[in-house]
Amino acid sequence: MKLPILGQAPQAAEGDRLPWRSIAGREDRRGHPSEFPAGAAEAPEGFSRRGFLQILGASVALAGLEACKPPRDTIHPYVRNPEKAVAPGAALHYATAVGWGTAAVGLLVTVHEGRPTKVEGNPDHPASLGGSGAFEQALLLDLYDPRRLRGFVRKGQPLSQRAALRALAQLAESHRDDGGKHLRFLTGESGSPLLADLRRRIEGRYPGARFHVYESLSADEAREGTRAAFGRPMEARLRLDRARVVLALDDDFLSFGAERLRLARELAASRTPGPGMSRLYAAEAHLSATGSLADHRFRMRPSQVLAFARAVARRLAEKHGMGALAAAGQAFPEREREASAVADDLARAGAAALVTAGSRQPAAVHALAAAINAALGAAGKTVEYRPAADEPSGPASLRALAAAIGAGQVDTLVITARNPVYGAPADMDLDALLARVPNVVYLASRPDETTGRASFLVAASHAFESWGDARAADGTVSLCQPLIEPLFESLSEPELLGSFVDAGDRGGHFLVQELWRARGPAGAPFEQSWQRWLAKGVVEGTAVAPEAPAVRAGEVAALLRAGTPGREGLEASFVPDPTLVDGRFAENAWMQELPDPITKMTWDNAALVSAATARRLGLENGRRVELRLRGRKVEAPIWIAPGHADDAVTLPLGYGRTVAGPTGTNVGFDAGRLRGSDAFWLDGGLALAPVGKRKHAFACTQEHFSMEGRDLAPSFTLAGLAQGQHELEKLRGPVASLQAPVDADSPIRWGMAIDLNKCTGCSACTIACQAENNIPVVGKEQVARSREMHWIRVDRYFEGPVEDPQVVTQPVACVHCEKAPCEYVCPVNATVHSDEGLNEMIYNRCVGTRYCSNNCPYKVRRFNFFEYQKPKAPTEKMLMNPDVTVRHRGVMEKCTYCVQRIELHRVAARVAGRELRDGEIQTACQQACPAQAIQFGNLADGKSAISAWHADPRRYDLLHEVGTKPRTAYLARVRNPNPELA
Amino acid sequence: MSALFGRQANTTIRMVLAAAGLGAVGILSALLIFARVPAGTRQLDEVVQPVQFDHRHHVVDDAIDCRYCHQGVEKGASAGIPSTALCMNCHAQVWSKSPRLEPVRQSYFTGKPIPWVRVHQVPDFVYFNHSIHVAKGVGCETCHGRVDQMPGIWQVAPLTMGWCLDCHRNPGPSLRPRDAVTKMGWKPEGDPAALAAQLMKAHDVKTRTSCTTCHR
């Protein structure tokens, strides 16, 4: 008989039921190839052991008495107290908004003594609802980047701000004579009423001038699809709060766009287990965040998504009497069973159904989705339509500009678009074209591929330094207010465009006030409204009512008949990168080091293929290949992605920057160099040829901090949840212990709970924690050695076959064990328990033995192997949260449940003479989480939200059998599969 | 042949070893002691300020309350140093030509702050909050001493962790009624122990000694 070993997981009798983190780990369950990656235990390089000891000795000797008496600080009080002076050290919060394409997200920015230190979502803003994402959080790091462009350079000569504005005004004046016939603008997409107004004024003054809009993530296909369906382009705004059955056609709505935060909130809320639980279907090629949450994910080549949608339409027309879809339907024999089941489910849900198409899919898919929604009666319910800008923002737009430059019609080109030379399709040599334009005025925030072609380089103010306005997807206007004076001499986009209408020297504040003074409600005193709008972050009553456009079935059918170009052979599918997007965050170290939510890759991208395709092509993971597409080629490493469609290659954009700063230059490969303007998102005929013998070195965190193959993220079907109770029962409840309970009598016992059913894996928590707690980035080489510093990591477990796995994402931070193994082994009492159940980490006591980390079963402790917080540029110091100690080399650190926030609110409440209220304290991860998957509070208060979460039937404890009694509980993931597809 | 080591060799080496051992312990102890005596905690330091501000004069002669200048003390972590404009509230009229106030006027007219030298300095990993201490009835004098008798501010309390903990473990004797917080030379009337117990209750004092109360 085999005796059980204490703490060992039950043997994996379930076979495929046991989750896995990587393909290698799945094949070798016992071996666990890389619990400690190569080099994890090595001493810091650059020092020999002897040299290290010498330095250590010398520093002790030198420390001497001087260390006892550090130099005295000086205190610099205000000369005059500012208008809103509060006690020094106290933070203020200001509402603002940042644009993402045509829509915007409302934010609340925390400001310490005039420096923005943290970004939160604005609860009053319809696109945020209080949540924020990794991208919004990471904007802060961009603000303080010391390598941002400063000032103005014209033909190699630096100019002062005043001289630059004068030069711009002169340039503008020189185009007056011929009505601006040789003046062109290349801008990004924007929903800002101010920018639209400036454009109107410029077009009025220079009738010959033309604006071109370019985004490398253009939604032109959606625009054309809705134009076909409705006769004019419409913006589809999803309402997942009203949807019960959702079919996402290659639409990763949880990862990109200004609406992703609201959609995550609504989707998470609709997935509360019970009779009303929603069901999500996804049809896609690469495993996206949205697909990872789907109850049923149909993996297919991107070009097959249209066929799948048509099969759904056919079933709806034939079986459910939706005659309007009859012409659109078409059989798709391979997927008939799935398509029929989805169609039946959609039909059952009727007006609570929703079909959504991703912006990468061709116009026909968008038109068909609109037609299906209309036939289901869902249009106007689960999806709202509002008019969209009627101009192209993709390759067509650049083509028009290229033609004008080619014909010599452009003397001055003003570029405010984001790095168009990098983002342009590869077959359009914008670099060469720009060389032919005499005056290229380029508004850029940092050196990039386009700055070299600019004859007049204008440093751009950061979004947190500029005045402006923005619109949410529902039309609600927000004012954008600066949180800080521009750190360097720079202009904002409205200020640059303003110099073409004689308003360049007026400043952004004047421009935006002028516009809203004219547009504000009549009668009300403007100053009052203005202050209220600024304080609240939204201009009330500016939402646009959705329209109810009629679907033109004939046009949709005609578009479908016209067909989309055939995609022969291996398909190339370009996707925005989940962390760098289109390259806009390439110079942002937080985003570079943030593991991709699915592949868990950092500081890199790769060509993603399925295991079967890799086998067919004779490729293994990490092999470098040359990708060839229509005569264009680029070299890339291969990554075998579980759940990827066969015969397709997913190519994440945004990497391979050739001109960026020290962070982003030459990281990954530039998939954009394969991208053609006629096949912008999807193309066929990709060829792969292996290059060399060496494998690519990835810094992938998927096997880091592994908890040894235990079933840590159990998931259940809605029907199986009741039976699953006994399984969960084993993972919770009291455990025997010899020790006295730590805080049984305390009136406050802090606890956390994470609902895995709501977690989308987006990693907003990781970046929010990084910003709140002054967590450093360590670089690719250190990440490869498992030394990343993130206090909250998001573990991603696969379950089932490599071809088509299910996914559970699980954020793990310190779980604040009641019987904390780390505490017993610390020789200097640097980690101890508080009277309220916090597992405290005291940096000033820590001597760096790392015993605690070795004894932590959850692998949540992080060690400063180097002086990661190396001396910083003055602007970088401004980023630091003054309420959290900056740790130096040799110190252990970990999640504190944001104890600085606990103490801040406790002091405020106690000074006011009241008790802490439930929900008053939010940890950084909890506050950021767009899906509200994290709860925090006082377990001793039986009526608190956290107590309810801890009593949830889905609750379980991580590594319960170890007996650590963690204070962070998890709520198991529940799926709602369609019984017909079981 | 004579012995390589003399008769004294054993004794000598024992002496040397003992001296080395004692020396190591001694140096460490000396360092630890130094950090706790007034010379090490800076209680004896004389601090030269850019302006010879006289607390004695302002508190006693002018009877200005502490909170007139240290406005953050009830609201935030830091008590705060007054803005130059606040000095000028009076000194625009009083002593407006005094050469000693030249740095103040210069700051006011140039907009450059006066670089005061910090006297009470705790390490960066210590997060002290004035507002909670004032709200619970800890007097200014308790930590800062008889400011009304100081021509220039010096540090009275050692500001060591042991000193903090002494009070956090037994806060009663350091409490006063809230209206006496800024009084100098305040003495409890009647039985100090009874008053301490009464104030503990009235002010709902719950001192904490968990590490993260101060270290984060």
In brief, what are we looking at here?
Chain A has about 1000 residues and is of the alpha/beta class.
Which tags fit this structure?
heterodimer; A: 982 residues; alpha/beta; Alpha-Beta Plaits; Rossmann fold; Dimethylsulfoxide Reductase, domain 2; 4 domains; seven-stranded mixed beta sheet; six-stranded mixed beta sheet; 27% helix; globular; disordered N terminus; B: 216 residues; mainly alpha; 10 helices; 41% helix
**Major sheet details of chain B:** none
Number of helices of chain B: 10
Radius of gyration of chain B: 25 Å
- The backbone outline of chain A, from C-alpha atoms, is globular
Q: Output the strand order for the largest sheet of chain A.
A: 6-5-17-16-15-7-8
Indicate the CATH architecture of the largest domain in chain A.
2-Layer Sandwich
* Largest interface, C-beta within 8 A: A-B, 41 and 49 residues
Oligomer: heterodimer
Largest sheet of chain A: 7 strands, mixed
Write the H/E string of chain B, N to C: HHHHHHEHHHH
Overall structural class of chain B, as computed from helix and strand content, comes to mainly alpha
Number of beta strands of chain B:
1
Unreliable stretches of chain B: none
Radius of gyration of chain A over alpha carbons?
Answer: 28 Å
Mean pLDDT of chain A: 89
Query: Strand content of the residues of chain A, in percent?
Result: 15-25%
What ranges of chain A have pLDDT less than 50 throughout 5 or more consecutive residues? 1-14
List the helices and strands and how they pair.
The complex is a heterodimer of chains A (982) and B (216).
Chain A: H1 23-27, H2 49-63, E1 74-75, E2 91-100, E3 103-112, E4 115-121, H3 134-143, E5 152-154, E6 157-159, H4 161-174, E7 183-187, H5 193-205, E8 210-213, H6 220-230, E9 234-238, E10 245-249, H7 260-270, E11 279-284, H8 289-293, E12 296-299, H9 304-319, H10 336-349, E13 353-357, H11 363-376, E14 383-387, H12 395-406, E15 412-415, H13 420-423, H14 430-435, E16 439-444, E17 456-459, E18 468-471, E19 477-480, H15 493-498, H16 508-519, H17 526-536, H18 553-562, E20 570-575, H19 589-593, E21 601-602, E22 607-609, H20 611-617, E23 623-629, E24 632-640, E25 648-652, E26 682-695, E27 699-700, E28 715-717, H21 721-729, E29 750-755, H22 764-772, H23 780-784, E30 793-799, E31 806-812, H24 821-825, E32 831-833, E33 839-841, H25 851-855, E34 862-863, H26 874-877, E35 892-893, H27 899-911, H28 924-928, E36 934-938, H29 945-950, E37 955-957, E38 968-971, E39 973-975
Parallel strand pairs in A: 7-8, 7-15, 10-11, 10-13, 11-12, 15-16, 16-17, 20-25, 22-24, 28-39, 29-38
Antiparallel strand pairs in A: 2-3, 3-4, 5-6, 5-17, 9-14, 18-19, 20-26, 21-27, 23-24, 23-26, 29-36, 30-31, 32-33, 34-35, 37-38
Chain B: H1 9-34, H2 38-41, H3 55-61, H4 66-69, H5 84-91, H6 102-110, E1 116-117, H7 130-135, H8 140-144, H9 161-169, H10 192-202
Helix pairs in contact in B: 5-6
